[in-house]
Amino acid sequence: MATNTYVGAVDQGTTGTRFMVFDHGGQVVANAYEKHEQIYPEPGWVEHDPREIWENTKDVITQALDQADIEADQLAAIGVTNQRETTLLWDADTGRPVHNAIVWQDRRTTDRIEQLQDEGKADDVQAKTGLEPDAYFSATKAEWLLDNADPIKTERARPADVRERAEEGEILFGTIDTWVIYNLTGNHITDVTNASRTMLFDIHDMEWDDELLEEFDVPREMLPEVRPSSDEDLYGHTDDDGFLGAEVPVAGALGDQQAALFGQTCFDAGDAKNTYGTGSFFLMNTGNEAVESEHGLLTTVGFQRSGEPVQYALEGAIFITGAAIEWLEDMDLIEDAAETAELARSVDSTDGVYFVPAFTGLGAPHWDQRARGTILGMTRGTRKEHVVRATLESIAYQTRDVAEAMEADSGIDMQSLRVDGGAVKNNFLCQLQSDIIDTDIARPQVDETTALGSAYAAGLAVGYWETADELRDNWQVDREFEPEAAGEYEDKYDRWSEAVERSLDWARDGGD
Q1: Per residue in 23-32, pLDDT tens?
Q2: 202-241 pLDDT, tens digit each
Q3: Which range (72-86, 451-465, 473-487) has the least confidence?
Q4: CA distance 214 to 281
């Protein structure tokens, strides 16, 4: 492989867009980032302007290439990774969105999900999609847009109804990967991982499902073609007359959490990673089997390479981890996140204090929207050091809750957990995590695993990397943590479970 070629990754996230360029060793050679506006039209509603996202995408690609003095034709391929579930519709003729994108966090379709549950349809949806029916996913967002987007001005005698045009294939549906790929290549494509988050896709038959499309009244004509995450047939090329001035293959896409799984080279059943951000996303590769969860996890598509079977994953979403540390800052208990390790180390234990950071309810495996943040066990002798330590322990305990659910569902004994995200720079937390789940913790040198995963998917598709083994060789440990005091936490974990029980079902109507 020529030494002066690279692979680029568009990482389109909830708060901003990043473009990263990687070399053959998986090292970062360029990185540019821009934020976009968060739009809140009503309480609980969250939107993004898709045009702003596309403009920012072009800007960060140009900035990163300029920064590293790389020409566009030195890119062997581009991969895409994205905030999952966020949904938009656009006009096939003009390429213009018909409405802002509805973001994954948006709760406007909660009533529709409750209707689905009341009609006894939730189990059927979960059996096909692997998803716990929720307003989080794309199906009800698409339905809302079709019913509520303003009619479009056309050459017809009257403005055309969006749904009517969608049935004629004149309106296109997509998640953000599809929007970015469409603007890069002109082709209407999604990958298997993003399709699996729409709640319109049967993950067993690996196709759009007619009954789900009928339930949510989404016309098949508006749906993208579903392709492997790493696609030797390519999604298309950039236009040499376009902003890059070169024909670059676009060949890989994965939703952000699956991209992190791929970037952490979790290619085999039992391989697992946890991304510690505002919340945490814990994914375990379950191989070619879509394991049905009996413990509150989601079954999802992990990834698919060209000509190979689909690899599935179990996923546990923990709502509040890094955000609990931000809360300590908001409460003036710490000045910055870096202080937490030193403060937590300064005491031998939490002195019996437990903190359940259920600020927005509890996610996997508890799924209680009415749980609320709870601190238990305080005495007159409790100091901020105890609360800080209890906060770090809560991150590790919540991760163990999900790890135990995964092992129970899959029957796979997890040998090691690969970690990434901002919070894993904290050595104290990593050691604590190892002790509390009694498993080795591996932190990689390159922690931008989401962008790296989509770069790997695109690079494999075009032969920039020949084999998965090459990627495994690239994966370098920054530091490994082994259990040192696992026995100390067994009784404490039982007490944690009691603390969680106390936090459940606290919020009544109106939040009080």
Answers
A1: 998 889 999 9
A2: 999 999 999 999 999 999 999 999 999 999 999 999 999 9
A3: 473-487
A4: 31
Beta carbons of 420 and 475 less than 8 angstroms apart: no
Residue 248 is encoded by which pair of tokens? 């670059």
Strands 6-12 and 75-82 come out as: parallel
Tokens of 184: 């890069």
Q: What whole-number distance in Å separates Cα of residue 491 and Cα of residue 405? A: 19
For residues 492 and 390, the answer to whether their CB atoms sit within 8 Å is no
Q: Which pair of tokens denotes residue 460? A: 């494999």
Judge whether residue 377 has pLDDT over 50: yes
The annotated binding site for glycerol is made up of: 84-85, 136, 256-257
> CB 471: neighbour CB atoms within 10 A?
20
Residue 230: C-alpha distances to residues 51, 193, 206, 309, 505 (Å)? 26, 11, 16, 12, 43
Note the pLDDT of residue 133: 87
Residue with tokens 């092992």: 407
Q: Are 237 and 247 in contact (CB under 8 A)?
A: yes
**Which residues contribute to the annotated binding site for sn-glycerol 3-phosphate?**
14, 84-85, 136, 256
Output the known binding site for ATP: 14-15, 278, 322, 422
Whether this prediction's pTM lies above 0.85 is answered by yes
How far, CA to CA in Å, does 106 sit from each of 38, 86, 128, 219, 275?
11, 9, 23, 22, 22
Q: Which of 103-107, 244-248, 330-334, 439-443 has the lowest mean pLDDT?
A: 103-107
Strands 272-276 and 416-420, by their bridges, are parallel
| Number of residues that this document lists for the chain | 512
* Structure-model confidence comparison of residues 462 and 362, the more confident one: 462
CA distances in angstroms from 301 to 206, 228, 310, 398, listed in the order given? 9, 11, 7, 23
- In angstroms and rounded to an integer, the radius of gyration of the C-alpha atoms of the chain is 23
- Which one-letter DSSP state was computed for residue 305? B
Let me know the angle formed at the C-alpha of 450 by 208 and 369, rounded to the nearest 5 degrees: 65
Rounded CA-CA distance 261/275 in Å is 9
Query: Which amino acids are annotated as binding site, given as ranges?
Result: 14-15, 18, 84-85, 136, 256-257, 278, 322, 422, 426
Q: What is the pLDDT of residue 362?
A: 87
First vs last C-alpha separation in the chain: 62
Provide the token pair at 202.
């049967």
CA 260/CA 135 separation, integer angstroms: 24
Annotated binding site for ADP: 14, 18, 278, 322, 422, 426
83-138 per-position pLDDT tens digit: 999 999 999 989 999 999 999 888 888 889 889 999 999 999 999 999 988 888 99
Q: What is the pLDDT of residue 509?
A: 58
